[in-house]
Amino acid sequence: MPGLPVVFSAMAAVSPTLEARTVPRWVRSTLWFLLIVAVLVLVWEAYKFIWTQLEWTWPVRPINRSMPHTWDIVSAMFRPARRGGEDILLVILAEAALFTLREAVLGFVIGGVFGFLLAVVFVRSPLAERSLMPYVVASQTVPIIAVAPMVVLWAGRNDWPQWVAVAFIASYLTFFPVTINTLRGLQSPDPTATELMRSYAARPGQVLRKLQVPAALPYIFTALKISATASVIGSIIGELPAGFPDGLGRVLLNFASTFSTSPEKLFATVFMSAVAGIVFVAAVSLAERVVVRSRPEVFAGDMLTPDEGRAG
Predict the structure, then answer these.
(1) Which residue in 186, 165, 163 sits closest to 115, CA to CA?
(2) Which tens digits make up the pLDDT trace of 99-109?
(3) Backbone angles phi, psi at 218, to 5 degrees
(4) Structural contact between residues 239 and 100, judged by C-beta atoms closer than 8 angstroms
(5) Which residues of 245-256 are buried (b: 16+ CB within 10 A; e: fewer)?
(6) In DSSP terms, which residues pair with 88 in a beta bridge?
(7) C-alpha distances in angstroms, 102 versus 11, 98, 170, 245, 278?
(8) Are the CB atoms for 147 and 172 separated by under 8 Å?
(9) Could you give the C-alpha distances from 194 to 120, 301, 310, 312, in angstroms and in order?
């Protein structure tokens, strides 16, 4: 497609110009995002046009029942979701996304806290790490679609709110990257800095709080951004056995059953699911900017005074 090199050349030319004019980073990120979306739309429509003209059918037939036009997907979001209905599809999808995000945020918090505490246990006890790490890794090989019905059933028998059960399913996917990255971050400080802290008679808790955790923050936030998307996926999967009529999981299931007649509705739902994940990751990235990038450089000698170490 001859137009793509021109688009990418324009993108490459725009970036240095924006840098030179000191445009805020969020503006540059937004422009790049919009440019990439434009490229994806161009590729989609070019595929449909070229494959239709040449009558190609592999790998995907470019018919509207399987590959609707992008403008059909957008217009479907501003029409009623059902015949005779009043609520437009965009409103229904936005409400479903907020419902799913509530579950995802709770699962994100539960999984993040559990993963952090597990990493602290591992860094404190190499024996615990060697003993439990294989089980932590093995837990991620169990298909979440098999775990979800069991958790929902247990929650029903214990009178938990079902959306809380779905949050626990989301936490199942969240804790693993937090555990692995936090452990790596807690082990990242230079041994010289650790020895200096100990020479000030610092207790393990003080070393953790003043040296290891600050050093691990970039690792932790990297894991949290991965976990943000994983928690949304876990919530959507968990909603299926729970039978929620309000979340994205049920909406996806409903529109998947009518894909052959209204494919644009399923594509719109997939797009809204992606938006929910992007919003969540953006929130975590904003928190990272506030917490990590605003921290001044801290040296081991500034972390703890001898008096503080003896007092601890």
Answers:
(1) 186
(2) 999 999 999 99
(3) -60, -40
(4) yes
(5) eebbbbbbeebe
(6) 80
(7) 36, 6, 11, 15, 15
(8) yes
(9) 16, 10, 16, 16
Which of 163-167, 211-215, 277-281 has the least mean pLDDT? 163-167
C-alpha atoms less than 13 angstroms from C-alpha of 241 in its C-beta half-sphere? 19
Range 89-311 has CATH code 1.10.3720.10: yes
Residue 69: partners with Cβ closer than 8 Å, 6 or more residues away = 45, 48
Look at the chain and count its residues.
312
Short-list 90, 62, 96, CA closest to 78: 90
Q: Degrees (nearest 5) of the Cα angle 4, 278, 113?
A: 145
Rounded Cα gap, residues 104 and 278, in angstroms:
13
pLDDT at residue 16, as a whole number: 52
Tell me the DSSP string of 148-210.
HHHHHHHHHHTT--HHHHHHHHHHHHHHHHHHHHHHHHHT-S-HHHHHHHHHTT--HHHHIII
Could you tell me the two tokens for 275? 């938006």
